[in-house]
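User: Quick sanity check before I run a bigger batch. Here is a single chain. Can you write out its predicted 3D structure?
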Amino acid sequence: MNATVRRLERSRLLYLQVDSCRPDAVTERTCEFEGGRADADDRASAVFSGPPPADWGIRLPAPPPPVEAAEAGSCLGRLVRSWRGHSRLQYLAKSTVRMILGESREDREGRAVASQVWALLGNVVTPAGRIVPVGQSGRGSGLAEMEREIAAGDFARALDRIDRSAPLGGGISPAVLAPPAAAVLIHEAVGHFAEAAPQGRVRLGHRLGFRIASEIFQMRDDPAAAAGAAHYAVDDDGTASRGGTEVVRDGRLLRLLHCTASARAMGVEPTGNARSALVWDPPLPRMSNLLCDPGEASEEEMIDRLGDGLYVHSLAYGYGFGFRLEAQVRLAEEVRAGRRTGRYFSGGLVDEDRIVLTRAAELGDVASFNRNAMCGKEGQILYDVGTSAPAIRLTALRMSA
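Assistant: Done. Predicted structure follows.
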């Protein structure tokens, strides 16, 4: 095969499992991977495992261990001890080195790019029998994030509230979404809508100019955003980042996010958003860090103007399909006469149209990144897809029991 682009990867992975019934008995597994992919002008591809062919004249350096297993295991044990109920968690840390070799003289030697991601997945069964999903991920080892949780106890308090919550019924209610919940809706409603079709299978230019949110929204995608889960200067097609892409202006979709193949199919320039979970996978147009600009209202002001409704603390399992999206309500709170009541709800689903954000009345004055940066698409799971959002006040939020 006359290859025009050759891709190489070496990875080291650490898996740890912990059960709160035996927090000191951490199960450990490790894995190493080396392989590559060659893509030709006619879009034919060939993949291989192990070192690259000798005539390529190059081999990647081995990535460093992602984290010390003993240190991570100790941190996991202390984390589950800080939570009431029965916890079963899996921790993943992955250290990777990748290189893309082109056919041009300047690309022939390539440049090795190192990265590290982590994820913490599982669930907690509270004393009252509520099953609470755990999902955190991002760039680095994650140990600092877990240490902060042990010290601050934010999730421990959320578990206590969920444990004494009432079931959330269906219906339509005005709502204020805290930044973590708002990030889930923005990711599903806007982020995936703005991604071009993989390999340019469908031309999506008709989406440009579409009103996807109310006019108060301005959003961009930036792989170099400070504190963002994604962090790269060159994407998995070898395209250099151009300092961010404006995605939404005044609530309307302004640009699509492209890899090389999708951009070629639509006759535009790639935006530096080609991303693949493994070097064997074809790069897809994916978000890096989706950033929603904050507004001017404090959360307290937004809740006061809400009147009667819900304050949604957190959502889980966001999922979009066609023009619909869903998310599990992990924790919500009743608001009466503009005041939070301390009466909590959990369960049920946000069951909405993709244009749910056209019902947004105002945005909070502080934006923050969602602690869960895991995202799946076309069978490829990434652990470093960042979404930064402020609180959002919606005039109506549709839920099903």
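Residues 166-401 form one domain.

User: Great, the batch can go ahead then.
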